[in-house]
Amino acid sequence: MKKITPFVLTLISIVFFAIPSAESVEKVKNITIVIPLNSHSRLIFGAENLSKALKEIGIKATVLQQNQLPKTSGVIVVGLAGSDLIKKSASAYKLTLNANSGKEGFAIASAKNTIIAGTDASGALYGCIELAERIKSEGKLPDNLNVSDKPEMVLRGTCIGLQKPYYLPGRTVYEYPYTPETFPWFYDKQHWTKYLDMMVENRYNSLYLWNGHPFASLVKLKDYPYAVEVDDATFKKNEEMFRFLTEEADKRGIWVIQMFYNIIVSKPFAEKHNIKTQERNRPIVPLIADYTRKSIAAFVEKYPNVGLLITLGEAMEGAGQDDVDWFTKTIIPGVKDGLKALGQTNEPPIVLRAHDSDAPRVMKDALPLYKNLYTMAKYNGEALTTYTPRGKWAELHRSLSRIGTVHIQNVHILANLEPFRYSSPDFIQKSVQAMHNVYEANGLHLYPQASYWDWPYTADKTKERLLQVERDWMWYKTWARYAWKANRDRNEEVNYWGNSLAQTFGLNADQGKQVLAAQEEAGEISPKLLRRYGITDGNRQTLTLGMLMTQLINPFRYGLFTMLYESEAPEGEMIIEYAEKEAKHEKHIGETPIQVAEEVVIHGRKAVEAIEKAAPFVTKNKDEFERLKNDMYCYNAMANYYSDKAKAAVAVLRFKYSDDVSDLDKALPFLESSVKHYAELVKFTKDSYLYANSMQTSQRKIPMRGVDATYINWYEMLPVFEKELNTFKKSIDSLKTNKAAGNNKKMPFKNADVKLLSKTGSFYTLSPNQSVFADSVVKLSDVAVELQGLKAIRFVKAQQLKSGTSLKFSTSKPVKLLVGYFKAQETAFAKAPELETDASANDYGQGEIKISNALLAGKLPTVNVHSYSFKEGTHTLNLPKGALLILGFIDGNQEVKIYNAGLGAYGKEIDWLFE
Hints:
Elements: H1 6-18, H2 22-29, E1 30-35, H3 41-56, E2 60-65, E3 75-80, H4 84-92, E4 106-110, E5 114-118, H5 121-138, E6 146-149, E7 155-161, H6 189-201, E8 206-210, H7 215-218, H8 232-250, E9 255-262, H9 267-272, H10 286-302, E10 307-314, H11 321-342, E11 350-353, H12 359-366, E12 373-378, H13 391-401, E13 407-411, H14 425-437, E14 443-446, H15 468-471, H16 473-484, H17 490-505, H18 509-522, H19 525-533, H20 549-553, H21 563-566, H22 575-584, H23 593-614, H24 622-658, H25 661-685, H26 714-737, E15 755-756, E16 762-765, E17 780-783, E18 791-794, H27 797-803, E19 805-811, E20 815-822, E21 851-857, E22 863-870, E23 873-879, E24 885-891, E25 899-900
Parallel strand pairs: 1-2, 1-3, 3-5, 7-8, 7-14, 8-9, 9-10, 10-11, 11-12, 12-13, 13-14, 21-25
Antiparallel strand pairs: 4-5, 4-6, 15-19, 16-18, 17-21, 19-23, 20-22, 20-24, 21-22
Helix pairs in contact: 3-5, 6-8, 10-11, 11-12, 14-16, 17-18, 18-23, 19-23, 19-24, 22-24, 23-24, 24-25, 25-26
C-alpha cells in the first residue's frame, strides 16, 4: 500500500468536505418561511426581512401564510409564543425554546429547522431581525441555535424636527406648517422607508415628530374652518403621508408620536381673532382652550394610533396652576372627545414632557383622569456632558420615574457636539447605565447627533449634501444597542465596535479598534469642555465656535445656567470659583478647570494619533474616512484652543484679586496661543463645513448673537478673538502707564417720554431711600449710577405675585424699557428671561443681563437689569408672575453697555480688559 502524503491527504480533505450531502444541499438551496394565517403586519415584515437576508447569500426563500407545517425540511416557523403553530413546530422538530416572558421578547431554536417565537408581534419581528443579522454575519443559516432576548428599555425612540434653521416670513419660533415647499423630504416615501428601515434594524420602537402646532396642517375643524394653515392640495398630501408613515412604521414595530407646544395657535386663527400665535405670559382664555381641545379631538379621531407628546412649558408660562389646568382641562378632555367620537375606549398614549413645568404636580392631577401616561425629561439638558448626573435634576428624574409610569430620557439637541461627528460607545454606554441607575428611567428619546434644525442633511460641505441617517449611522446604532441592553462586557464591546468600523472602512480588526479609540478619545472633549467652562447646557451656546474671555471670567453676566454645574457635571469648580480659591489659598474640590484643560489636550492628541494609525490602510468609504479624520483634527484644535484660553482666564482672574499687572503678563502667552489654535480650527473647518450650528436665529447668544445666519462659521469668529487679544494687549499697556485705566466714568441715563396707559402702577424717581413696592416698606439702599434719576414705576408686589406684571404704554419714538429682576430662584420673584426654557426670551432683545448687580433694596436679593426694545406705537408687555422692578424708559438709541455694577459683595469688574 502506498503511503498517502500530507499534501494528498489535504486534497482529499478539501474534496470530501466540499461535497455536501443531499440533505444539506436541499437545506442550503431552499428555505420555507411559515407564518400563521392572518398574521400581524410585523410578522409579515419580519418574514420578508428574513427572506431578503437568505437570498443575499444565495438561498431561495419562500414565505407561506398557513397554520400547517410543510412536510419538507429547511423550514423557519415564525409566530407568537404559545400559539398552536409554535407548539406544533416545537413538537414536530423536537426543539425546546428558551422561556422568554416580557414585552417585545423572542426566542430562537434551530437544528434542521428553525423556530422564532415572539412574546408579541414586535418580539416575533425582532426575532426575525436577529436571525437575519446572524445570516448576514456568518454567510449561512446558523443551526443549533437556542437563544432568547428582550429589551431593557420599554421605549426606544428617535425624533425628527419639522422645523428649520430660520424663521418663516411673518412667523416666529416653532411655527412651521407642513408643506412641500418647507419640508420636501416629508413627502419623500423613499426617504421614510430608508429611515424606518434604519430604525427597525436598530430595534427602535418609537418615532417622534416635533412641531409647534401641527394640527392646522393635519385636521380641519367644523367650528374653526379658517384655522387650517395649508391649501387643499397640500392638506390631502399631508393626510396621505401621515397614513403612509404610520402604516409603514407600525409594521416595523414603531409607534409614531406627534409632539406639539403649548399654547400656540395657527396663524390664520390668530389673525382672525387679532391675537398672537404664541405669548408666554398670556392667561388661558376660553377661545384658545376650545380651539386647542377641538384640534386635539379631531387629531385623535383621525389618527387614533398616533401618540401625543406634550410640552406644557416654554410657549406658555412655566410651572404653576396653568400647567395643571391646561393638561387636565384642555388636553386630556380633547383626547377623550376624540375617543368618544370614534366609539373607542383604548386610550392612546400621552407623553408629558417635564420641560419648564412642574411635571410631578401635573401627573398627580392627571393620573386619576387618564391612565396611559408617560413622562419625559432631558438627560443632560440640550447637550451631552456627563454620565454622572446628580443634584436637583437627578431628583426630578427619580421623582418622575417613581410615579409608576414609564419615564423617558430625552437626549436633546446636542448643542455642544454639532457639527462634528460624535460616537463614543464608552461614553454612551455609561450614559445609558446612568439613565437606569441614577435616574431610574426606562425609556430613550434620541435627537439627531447634529443639525437637528436642518434635517435630513448634515453640515458637511460636500458636492451633494450628506444625509444624517447615513453619516451618523454609529450614533443611532450605539444608543439603540445600549437601550436594548446596557450592561455589556467592555472587552466584548471594543471587539464589536472595532469590527463594525473595520467593516465600514475595509480595515482589519486591530485597525478598526484604532478608529474606535480615536472616536472615544474625541468623545470626552466636548462634554468636559462644556461642563467646566460653559454658560449653558442649551442651544443658545455653540461650544465649537469658542467663547469670549468675558464669558469665561464673568459668566453670570451672560445668564449663567447654574444647573449645568450643579446637576449635569461631576462635582467640581467653575473658572471663577477656581480662581477665587487660588487667591484665598483654599482647597479645590472635584474636577477643576485646569485639570480639564490638561485632559482635553491629551484626548485630542490621542484621537489624532489613533486615526492616523488606521489611515494608511483604509480600502472602503475613503471619502467618509477622510472627513472623520478631519473631525479628529478639529477636536484636537478645539481642545488646545480652550485649554490655553482657560489658563489665560485663570491668570486674568488672579489679577482681579492681586492688582498685580504681572498676572496679566502671564495670561498673555496663553491667550496668544489660543488664537493660534483657533486659526488651526478655522483651517480644518473652512472647506469642510457649511456652518457650526443648525439653529441660526437670534436665540443663539454664545459666543456671539446670531441674527440672520451670522456668526455661524469659525472664520467669522477668528477676527473677534484677534480683536479681543489686541484689546487685551492695549489694556495691559494702559495699566502700566495709567493706573486709572478701566475706570470709565458712568453717566446717568436720560428719561424718555412715554404715555402710561395702564391703570396699575405709579411713577417714582430711582434713588436711595425710595420704596420699591406700593405694599412694602422695603427701600433702595444703592443704585448704579446710570439708573439714578430714572422714572421707575411702583407696583403692588402682591398683585405681581398673583397675576404678573402688565404694562401698556404708547411712545412716539423708539424706546428701551429697563426691567430689574431679583437674583433669586424662589417663586416669590419673577423669573428672568432665559432661553433654556423660554424660546421667546429674546423677542425684545431682553435675553441677556445688561447691568448686573445694579440695585440693592433692604435684604432682598440684588437686582440685574434687562433691556426691552420697542418701536414707536402702542404696546402691551406681559411679564411673568413674581416680584420685579420696572426701572424706567430711555431713548431707543441709547447704548446700554453690558457690565457688572458690582453693588454688594460681588467684587470689581475686569471685563473692560477685553472690550
